[in-house]
Q: What sequence folds into this?
């Protein structure tokens, strides 16, 4: 017959002046179960979106289904897109406008400087280049419509935020739909898609 495995050694007695709880805390931790589901924000990459993370508590209370997937896969990525695009358009609009103002402001100063002191023919070329650059920047601003897109993207983002807040608070167009989940879902889809 094979011998039985030896029993596990008893835990070490606490050191003098050490409480039993501290001794238990100092004991080596058991290896975690390899099959345990990951927890935290890395459990689902969809929660890495800052808007999904903002509503994490509400989303955790929702059952898995079409509404939750719609919010995580469509609405929150759309909010991130509008936020990022709005930021890019705002930066481009400010940069191009400031450059245009600087170039337009330098032209009269350089013309005056040319009249006061002789600086050579180079100044005429510089004035012409700055005037042309200012005109080109003005045309780019008119063509690309950075300001209009910035405002439009920001407006869509704020409307989506409002809709999601109303949805989770059961307010506005969602107030009377708490007893009818199908109509509530359809209202969410309709309102969000009309914004997007």
A:
């Amino acid at each position: 017959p094979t011998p039985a495995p030896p029993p596990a050694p008893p835990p070490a007695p606490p050191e003098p002046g050490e409480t039993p709880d501290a001794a238990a805390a100092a004991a080596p931790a058991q290896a975690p179960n390899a099959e345990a589901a990951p927890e935290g924000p890395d459990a689902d990459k969809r929660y890495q979106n800052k808007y999904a993370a903002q509503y994490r508590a509400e989303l955790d209370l929702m059952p898995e289904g079409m509404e939750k997937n719609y919010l995580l896969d469509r609405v929150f990525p759309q909010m991130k897109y509008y936020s990022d695009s709005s930021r890019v358009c705002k930066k481009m609009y400010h940069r191009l406008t400031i450059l245009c103002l600087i170039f337009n402001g330098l032209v009269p100063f350089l013309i005056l400087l040319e009249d006061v002191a002789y600086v050579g023919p180079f100044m005429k070329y510089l004035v012409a280049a700055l005037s042309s650059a200012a005109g080109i920047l003005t045309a780019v601003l008119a063509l690309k419509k950075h300001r209009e897109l910035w405002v439009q993207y920001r407006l869509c983002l704020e409307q989506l935020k409002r809709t999601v807040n109303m949805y989770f608070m059961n307010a506005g167009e969602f107030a009377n739909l708490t007893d009818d989940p199908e109509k509530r879902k359809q209202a969410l889809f309709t309102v969000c898609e009309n914004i997007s």
Residues 22-38 have pLDDT under 50 and may be disordered. Helices lie at 20-26, 50-54, 56-61, 66-116, 122-144, 146-169, 181-195. The two ends are 75 Å apart (CA to CA).
